[in-house]
Specification:
single chain; mainly alpha; 4 helices; 66% helix; 0% strand; globular
């Protein structure tokens, strides 16, 4: 959740608007909580079409920007 690291990710990767929104939400949530679930992030992103959010999440996982902690 280091802002410099997130800025570097954004510079090095071509992220679409929804991917950026998802990362912004993750960054915001990580400041207040030690642990949270991705379903919580999906619920927090203000988008009626949840498929857009799921597609962004899948893309971030494929790009290895979001990785499993398990």
């Amino acid at each position: 959740n280091n802002p410099k690291h997130i800025a570097k990710i954004r510079e090095e990767n071509e992220l679409n608007a929804m991917e950026n929104r998802f990362l912004n939400t993750v960054n915001s949530m990580s400041k207040g909580k030690v642990n949270f679930y991705l379903k919580d992030v999906i619920e927090m992103v203000d988008e009626k079409n949840k498929d857009f959010i799921i597609d962004a999440l899948e893309s971030l996982i494929e790009k290895k920007i979001i990785i499993s902690s398990i």
